[in-house]
Amino acid sequence: MSWLILIASGMLEAVWALALSASNGFKKIAPTVLFLVSLTVSMAGLAWAMREIPTGTAYAVWVGIGATLTLLVGFLRGEERPTLVRVGLLLVLVGCVVGLKVVS
User: Fold this and answer.
1) I want to staple 49 with a disulfide (CB 3.0 to 4.6 A). Which of 2, 19, 36, 39 is the partner?
2) Of 55, 86, 42, 45, whose CA–CA distance to 68 is shortest?
3) Residue 100, by phi and psi: left (phi above 0), alpha (psi -120 to 50) or beta?
């Protein structure tokens, strides 16, 4: 169960990162509220998962999921350029996150 909570929390990390960007320096209300809610739930989920998953592993998986999803959204929106090197590095990142899960 901790792993599922950790994965969901990592996904929420991408939500709050994107909402933070959309808030325009906290000037837009809806993205700011989404940022605050998703940040709070994401951190609470990370803290919950860390009760059973070692801190380093949990944090690395959480950040990896959030960073991967945030970058993928950037690719889909056309805000980031998906070069061969960037996609390759993203695949390495995903492989590392999966590897941490496998060896834990």
Assistant:
1) 2
2) 86
3) alpha
Q: Name the residue with tokens 């059973």.
A: 52
Q: How far is CA 21 from the centre of its chain?
A: 14
**Alpha-carbon gap, residue 11 to 77, rounded angstroms:** 17
pTM comes to 0.88
DSSP 8-state assignment for residue 1: -
Element (DSSP H or E) covering residue 47 = helix 29-49
Dist CA 61 CA 6 (whole Å):
8
Distance CA 67, CA 64 (A): 5
Going from N- to C-terminal start, the domains of the chain cover 2-103
Model confidence over 13-68: pLDDT tens digits?
A: 999 999 999 999 999 999 999 999 999 999 999 999 999 999 999 999 999 999 99
